[in-house]
Amino acid sequence: MVRKLVAYALAVALTVVTVSYAVLAQPRSRVDTVRSRGKLVCGVSGTTPGFSFPDPVSGRMVGFDADFCWAVAAFLDVPDVEFVNLTSASRIPAVVSGSVDVVFRTTTQTITRDDQVDFGPVTFYDGQRLLVRADSRISGLDDLNGARICVFTGTTSERNITDQMRARNFRFQQITFAEAKQAFDGLAAGRCDVFTTDASQLTAFRSTAPNPADFKIVGKEFSDEPLAPMYQENDSKWADVVNWTVWGMILAEELGITQTVTRDPAQLAELTGKDPNAKNLVELKSGAIQRVLRLIGNYGEVYDRYFGPRQKTAISRPGTRNDLAKRGGAQASRPYR
């Protein structure tokens, strides 16, 4: 009997030690790191019009991607964002090393990249096209035999155009740059016949030319580029923060909850009193999405801020995948309940 009691006591002690070790061995989530730091470190391009660029007056980082950085910070109730400019080649290493908390940088989600990092929801659906000078005879991929092609390294764009040229047995010269802006400047300076990348970026850089009419976007989209945020693998708590920030902004647009509504207690109370989904959205997670909407606005407001019809970088949304799913697009939330 004594031996059985001793054996039982040892078994219990071993279980306690094992469980304690497992609990202690669990890595600290980036949620705790960001909150204790009081600042989100967000990787962006910093040089891409429309997506992330310094405001010419204040110098503050603004843009579609930059706003999502602020949205994640607001979800966590963290007051500050530090922006880190990353090239296409340096963005994944920055995530893997942990030098940034999240990257919003026109990054296409692919299976090979997913082996190194985790991706959040798609924030922008895109596809690759061609930018040429207005007097160019190039109207599509089939006109590129012998062409000089400007691209920037570490991108799916570089691989896509190479595959298209090789599939056609075309001769071509690929001129590579570290950044998209450098590639566009290469086209403007006559170093190449065509600059190719995501259509949204071509639109954005064309708008920065002294005379945008000097350039034109040609050809059909020849790739699928779902752009999504990146963060370190195997941290579900941090993934939840990024993912539910994006989904909450999309759902807010679906429900008609705007920045103006969230800043007006009377309007907000009226809307949430009628719609339980709206009530859940603004109240769950201690009002995390309400903070996001007050600071940044919903998905549609962010889109229109940088790509709306009144912007130089206007990119039509109706009829595209960037529209809400309920209007025929692909942008959809997950239930807040």
Task: Describe it.
This protein is of the alpha/beta class and 337 residues long. It has two domains: 196 residues, D-Maltodextrin-Binding Protein, domain 2, CATH 3.40.190.10; 96 residues, D-Maltodextrin-Binding Protein, domain 2 (3-Layer(aba) Sandwich). Helices cover 44% and strands 16% of the residues. It has a five-stranded mixed β-sheet, sandwiched between helices. It has a three-stranded parallel β-sheet with strand order 4-1-5, with helices on both faces. Helix 6 links the parallel strand 9 and strand 10. Helix 9 crosses helix 12. It is globular. About 5% of the residues have low confidence.
Features:
globular; alpha/beta; 2 domains; 13 helices; D-Maltodextrin-Binding Protein, domain 2; 337 residues
